[in-house]
Design a protein that fits this description.
Number of helices: 10
Number of domains: 2
Shape: elongated
CATH class of the largest domain: Alpha Beta
Oligomer: single chain
Strand order of the largest sheet: 6-5-4-9-12-14-15
CATH topology of the largest domain: Rossmann fold
Helix content: 25-40%
Largest sheet: 7 strands, parallel
Structural class: alpha/beta
Radius of gyration: 19 Å
Distance between the termini: 44 Å
């Protein structure tokens, strides 16, 4: 296969498997490791993958987004720590927005069950996780359900959300960068997130370190819009400091 075909194959493998390794790709494609490294460098330059030590993982874009089912299998210990730390920032909030996605779902599960809370969400998974909590009232936003994330979108969702003034929003994203802010592949999802940002007095981003530096299609918030960013220790401390200079407290767990 020629260079373009090989790079398309590498991208397809990365999106299917969640990541690729240079050594394995070299063997599979029967090319030198340096050739694979050049291919990954080119794909990274086009914003399609992010390089790691010895490999790469795919960047979510307008043409590619991982499903909720896939997200529940990756980096779960780190996501659980992030969720617990984010839930500890609840403070005296009585009304909370919890975003779609696996990490926000874990945040919802980590919320205290011994005090009254009202949780607003577009996520069927979040609503299900909290449905049996006696002191938590769950308001599920209506709308079109996206099968890949099991969350509602479109004007029904944003219209209902716009009627609320929410104490605290836990927001997720497919990418966060200092230059482009927070992004997500789908315009309909972006609208819901943007409305949550407008409706909330306080905003916390909770996300794994692999989200940092990644840029997707639709921009819905600036880094400076958040009071706190909660991530794992995979984000280098120097990079965390650069994000903190934009305004939010950055917590690495």
């Amino acid at each position: 296969m020629d260079t373009d075909e090989r790079r398309r194959e590498i991208l397809e493998i990365a999106r299917r498997d969640g990541s690729v390794e240079v050594t394995a790709l070299a063997g599979k494609l029967q090319v030198a490791k340096e050739t694979v490294r050049r291919d990954l460098h080119a794909l990274e330059g086009h914003g399609l993958v992010r390089r790691t030590h010895g490999g790469a993982y795919p960047v979510e874009s307008a043409g590619f987004e991982t499903t909720l089912a896939v997200r529940t299998t990756r980096l779960v210990p780190q996501k659980s720590r992030i969720a617990a730390a984010a839930a500890d920032l609840l403070g005296d909030a009585e009304t909370v927005f919890v975003d779609e996605g696996f990490t926000p779902q874990l945040v919802a599960e980590a919320l205290p069950r011994d005090r009254p809370l009202t949780v607003v969400t577009a996520s069927l998974a979040v609503a299900t996780a909290l449905a049996d909590a006696e002191k938590i009232a769950v308001l599920l936003l209506g709308g079109r359900v996206r099968g890949s994330t099991m969350a509602t979108v479109d004007h029904w969702t944003t219209r209902m959300l716009s009627e609320f003034v929410i104490d605290l929003a836990y927001v997720g994203a497919n990418g966060i960068s200092r230059e482009y802010g927070l992004t997500t592949p789908d315009p309909a999802v972006s609208e819901v997130k943007a409305q949550a940002m407008r409706s909330a007095r306080r905003r916390i981003f909770a996300g794994i370190h692999t989200k940092f530096g990644a840029v997707s299609f639709c921009r819905f918030a600036d880094v400076s819009d958040f009071e706190s960013i909660v991530t794992d220790a995979g984000l280098p401390s120097a990079e965390a400091q650069r994000y903190s200079l934009l305004g939010p407290q950055v917590i690495r767990v």
